[in-house]
Amino acid sequence: MINVENLHKSFGNNEILKGISTKVENQEVVVVIGPSGSGKSTFLRCLNGLETVTSGKIEIAGLELTNPKTNIHQLRQNVGMCFQQFNLFKHLTIMENITIGPIQVLKQSKQESEKVARELLKKVGLQDKENNYPDQLSGGQQQRVAIARALAMKPKVMLFDEPTSALDPEMVGEVLKVMTDLAHEGMTMVIVTHEMGFAREVGHRVIFMDGGYLVEEGTPAEIFNNPKEERTKSFLSKVL
Ligand code: ADP
Ligand code: MG
């Protein structure tokens, strides 16, 4: 589903990603961990074209992002993204937040879009909130709406950048539950998180990044129980 080959990304003279290569299979759940500043967000932003790549190759669902001939809008439709800050439209209702993309971008009818939105709101446990505005919802509820909004675009891949980091602790579980359900339904996902319990239980593979390098990757058992690299061991000793 995703193929990344020797990805380099610089901001000016500052090289942030120093040759990342990895593959994500269809229906695979990959968790990216690593210290702050290691390039995790930059990596995700490259995957959906929010950053231009300095060199290397990215293919997603058969489209080559790094080929200038590729229709970037078509590629972005394949890739849903959720951020730490939920980025909902404050002046739109929950229903409008979810249906604006399908109506304006996918050219779906309002009726069809609302039907899908209600199914998605039910999936994330917010069927009674469609007429509310974002600031009437808790952080955990807003993040669940943000996930529903991304899913309404029928993505082939979902990217999550620390989706629970801005939440009060009691709301983390409800968002992780929605992500766990998605994983069990076979959604292909790349998730940056500090939730090591989630990484271990839901991740099929864990990638450890440090200093712009993909230092080590493996199954959760390999990375958490038997890390090979010193930098991985040192990081895990601080967070576990
Ligand atoms: P992480 O998500 O692992 O904390 P980031 O990808 O956000 O790491 O950042 C990695 C490095 O890239 C940081 O040193 C950050 O300052 C730098 N960086 C990120 N975005 C930009 C940008 N738009 N311009 C310049 N530097 C940036
Ligand atoms: Mg980040």
From TrEMBL:
The keyword Cell membrane applies. One of its GO terms (cellular component) is plasma membrane. It comes from the Bacteria. InterPro entries: AAA+_ATPase, ABC_ATPase_HisP-typ, ABC_transporter-like_ATP-bd, ABC_transporter-like_CS, MetN_ABC_transporter-like, P-loop_NTPase. Pfam families: ABC_tran (PF00005). SMART domains: AAA. It is found in: Cell membrane. Residues 2-236 form the ABC transporter domain. It is a peripheral membrane protein. Keywords: Amino-acid transport, ATP-binding, Cell membrane, Membrane, Nucleotide-binding, Transport. GO terms for molecular function: ABC-type amino acid transporter activity; ATP binding; ATP hydrolysis activity. Belongs to the ABC transporter superfamily. This is ABC transporter domain-containing protein.
